[in-house]
## 1
Amino acid sequence: MSGGVRHLYVHLPFCAARCGYCDFVTLVGREGEHEPYVEALLAELALERSSLDRELDTIFLGGGTPTYTAPRALERLLAALPPAREVTVEANPETVTPRLAALLRRAGVTRVSLGVQSFQPHLLHALERRADAAAVRTAFHALRDAGFDNISLDLIYGVPGQSASDLAHDLDDAIALAPEHLSCYELESKPGTRFAHAHGDELARQAEAMEGYFEQVVETLTHAGYRWYETANFCRGGVAAGGRDLRSRHNLAYWLGRDYLGLGIGAVSTVGGVRWRNAPKLAAYVAAARAGRVPPREVEPLDDDVRRRERLLLGLRLDEPLPLHGVESALDAGALARLERLGLAERRGSGLTLTRRGRFLGGGVTAELIA
Ligand SMILES: C[S@@+](CC[C@H](N)C(=O)[O-])C[C@H]1O[C@@H](n2cnc3c(N)ncnc32)[C@H](O)[C@@H]1O
Ligand code: SF4
């Protein structure tokens, strides 16, 4: 039986250390638990398999640090996953050796997303990162040498101690590597965390500079020939892309409101109008798998209004018009007319898109549009 879901997310939570700003579901070390965890992932996959299509479009291994997972366990997992057109693995630079790059390639991985964050020593220090700029370059070249022709770099801006000129250097250093794809995120820090406490005043100063940084990122990367296809995401286009569409197919599926299955602790799934989130506890996850049960999870049926609003919120992050069919009732017609007059949104055919100025204002414009 094939259930039609074509996008699979797999969460690998283990990391060598915890970076101060990180709010993902992660576990430090736990080497002895990597194999049992992968075993549990495969048990969850077997239980959910009927919801997956016979042919998958995308698989995304996210973390945590998937490439910190014990190589044997990682290899076993990759071998057991169904084939897919795009298979992405997130990697931390210090974990990428020629051997690991070859393992990923052999196992059918098509795309690697490298967590760079910055090339500047003082910013890497503030973020509590382990890899320096030299390690990033070594990792990047190891991936290229292994044959990867689709590499993405993650950068973060608004870091304590950062200036516009630091950001310019980070962008230049990233562009110099000529990656196919770049994700540039503004630093989010949860109030009340150790990180927020340690950098309080400086984070407030950075928050004031954020709008300017965002424009700097977009201006620099589009000038360098990257397509600004989603609020925080850029890919090579035109001749440099050699006719390939280098957008992240997996993340596009989220932004276009497609169904996806998520495996692992803390993983979220949205299938057939129902969303569930697995509990973030490793022991309970492994125990459920051993007993042949689905892991503990929170289940939330999504009503049509919520789905339409999500479609708008996510779809308007993209540079291509969002087809309005089916989402009109979530739109505030008065607000749309006003935003069109202000040159922030425009209707193109039967679709709706934000203008360049509207995209800079982003979430604020979309929030106004929603009825
Ligand atoms: C799931 S994370 C982890 C990937 C990988 N373990 C790493 O550290 O490079 C994926 C990306 O989210 C971004 N990220 C993580 N925490 C963030 C935060 N607090 N604010 C903004 N971006 C963040 C980083 O760019 C990171 O590379
Ligand atoms: S390595 Fe990545 S996932 Fe792990 S704590 Fe650091 S930012 Fe978070």
## 2
Amino acid sequence: MPEIVLKNVSKRFGKFVAVDHLNLTIESNAFITLLGPSGCGKTTTLRMIAGLETPTEGSISIDGTVVFDADRGINLPPNKRDVGFLFQNYALWPHMTVYQNIAFGLENLKWSKDRIAARVRELLSLLRIEQFEKRYPSELSGGQQQRVAIARTLAPGPKVLFMDEPLSNLDAKLRMEMRTELKRLHRDTDSTFVYVTHDQLEAMTLSTRVCIMETGVLQQYAPPLEMYNNPANRFVADFMGNPTMNFIDGELLPDGVLSFGGLRARMKGAEALGARKIVVGIRPEYIHIDASAPLKATVYSTLPSGMETTVRLAYGDTLLTAVAFGDVDYPADSEVGFSFHKAAILFDQQTGKNLLRAPLEI
Ligand SMILES: Nc1ncnc2c1ncn2[C@@H]1O[C@H](COP(=O)(O)OP(=O)(O)OP(=O)(O)O)[C@@H](O)[C@H]1O
Ligand SMILES: [Mg+2]
């Protein structure tokens, strides 16, 4: 089973650095997402692993075989890397039935008719599209077409499956359904999945590990919940989670007290960091609205969704986002109590680096 190793992989287009010295090990059977804002180098990274783009420097190996090495002049073409692709525009052949679409690539590989028939059946069943076998793509819904495209990509049994925003053309409900299907599919095949998305929720919910990039530079590579709970820096903290984390500028005073947003607090371990300018990061779900809490704020606005309500609280000049679970609402301008729970994160104001994660003691 394939383990993919990238060592110091860079890609420059002229002077522009699209991917900068990327080091990454993708474990066998992992479901990895490459996550980050538009233009951060996700597609370029994927294309380099697949062999569709030549790195400027570095080396890449798949399953112990060096497929690219700038210094040794090794560069295997995509068809020698045993990989499959699924792109955002997954055009099926309109004049072929579902069966023919899935079988086509296998015919090109000169598989026998019986072997092709068995494999197509297997995929139709795996993706739950048996009933559409004889239909043409135009007779299918977007989600059904998507499943055919996935079946077609999986047909030759690639060791690694690359997907570049494959769900972005689908509506929200279908996207959700396909995420479930993809996760299930990953379990049912023994392929390694490398998935590109700029949607943090998709990355959180699908992957075993997330690789988050900004302007070609790897920011953090960790399991999604670890990244959510203990982001390496302010960029990662801000990118993961919706509603986004509260960031409040402040100061860590020489005596170890934190002063931020009109509040004073202590955090275990903060004394050791030394006086400096900091940013306090607090997840909205760790701010509880609680009538008996001594801290009081004014309700600025609320966004009830039924399952939860996002509440903007004004504490002096500071606006805080809190999340209240359940079917609750608060009148604007009313006074509520609030308290901090679980951990907050201290970021260095200059570098954005995560300095400390601990509960706030008010
Ligand atoms: N062939 C090229 N020539 C010059 N610059 C390129 C080329 N391909 C990509 N780039 C640049 O490299 C950077 C990374 O591009 P890439 O396509 O990897 O971004 P991405 O993270 O996939 O973004 P998106 O989410 O918008 O798809 C971008 O700034 C892009 O403009
Ligand atoms: Mg892209």
